[in-house]
Amino acid sequence: MCWMALLAAGCSEAPPPKRPATAPPAAAAPLQGDTSPAMIDTSSAALDTTLGKCAVALLAPSQPQEEVIEALRAAYGLEGSLIDRLGAFDTITREDVYAHYRQGFSDQLARELTDYSWQPEEKRVRATDRALTVPDSVGVLELKSDRALVAWIPPTNFRRQWGAPRCFIDRLVREEGRWIIQGREP
User: In what helix (H) or strand (E) does residue 5 lie, and over which residues does it extend?
Assistant: First the structure.
């Protein structure tokens, strides 16, 4: 079962095989001199509409939005920091893994991430493809004092590896003074 369906960030199985690159049809390739300068639109265009709500990720965030964006990035970096931590510590418990993920995710998501990361037979974190990625392009759709909707664009390599969509929208809530990821919008 693909773990990505819930958090849309990874699978317990190996990623699908990569499709071979295909060249675009010859008709799609532009021809030299095909476009005259008069045909080029130089008007200021609206945001990239192919990104939908994730177009907000291309805008510069306001100061209040920065805190939420950094919290989202920190949460998605927890898997990487867990793996780095294991280089320094030989032993770790399932409870330690859960507590680690709980720093940036709701109770339910932290449990699911722990289930994904933990190998019960060997009582350690399993070596697998990373299920989380730290997004570069992040924007805030809605920001209230206790909740936020944040849109982000996953890196291309991650999208290809997991078959992920181009845009994710996460719900964040304030919990004990910090922002945590509560879930994903459909």
Answer: helix 4-7
